[in-house]
Amino acid sequence: MKIKDKHLFELLKEYLTTYLPLQRIVSPLTVKSYRETLNLYLNFLCSERKLQLKDIGFAEINTDTINAFLEWLGTCHGCGLNTQNHHLSVIRAFLKYAGAKDPMLNSYYLASFQVPRRKADKQLTVKHFSEEVLNAILKQPNPKVRNQHRDLFFMILLYDTGARDSEILGLTPKDVVANTSAPYIIVHGKGKKIRMVPIMEETTFHYKSYLKRFHKDLDEDSPLFYTVIHGVKQQMSDDNVARFIHKYADMGRNICPSIPKRVTPHMFRHSRALNLYRKGVPLPLLSEWLGHANLETTLIYAYADTEMKRAAIEKATDANHPLRKTKDVVQENYDELTIKTLYGLC
Question: What average pLDDT does this structure show over 317-322?
Answer without folding.
Answer: 58
